Input
Amino acid sequence: MKIRAVIVEDEEASRLTLKNYIDKYCDGVEVIGESGNVEEGVSCIKDHQPDLVFLDVEMPFGNAFDLLEKFEEVFFETIFVTAYSHYAIKAINYSASHYLLKPIDIDDLIAATTKVREKILLKEQSDAHINTKVLLENIHITNSQLKKVVLPVMDGFEVVEVQEIIRCQANDNFTDFHLKDGTRKVICRTLKHYEEVLSEVGFIRVHKSHLINVNYVKAYKKGKGGYVEMNDGSQVDVSASRKQAFLDHFKK
Output
């Protein structure tokens, strides 16, 4: 399996060093594009549609997190490369596949690309078990609302009652399903995919990373976007751009 990669790094010497390391030590990883700032990086990623992006944190006119915010759905794996260790927690919160400190350690680089390969293989194996569209098992009731949804897992699929789903959370190219019984299922589909499936049955996208079942909303707390308290005790941020649509639902 060939992993197609893009490097976004403002220092030309660092780009060259990283590319040479990848070519020499990371079998199966091909660098197909390079750029030196956020704006060029966004264009490069959209043009090449890579599997993996090596992303420097500090760049002219913005940083790595500004770049990621340009994408409604992050369809690529991310390896952060930076000289600043204090960005590690934020990188993890953005579901980075790995975090490399400069100067790059070759063993760490190999470990990072291996992790990406395993993650991509996991997705491909899941796709092999089930069609890219969500399977439905005689799930229609009188008003065409979904009663059950089939979720692809590694060894097949699981059928879940829609009413058992409290919320869904983006996890890079995966989606975490949080259920009433307290369990979490990591499913190999994007949150956008499930937004399209569940939006007509009481689910609202309140944030780039969150889709909630409005039947389990316990309270809403005001703020720029505010946040929602769910019946399971979780708190879900509401983005400012989605706040009004969320509030309008409860005015009906």
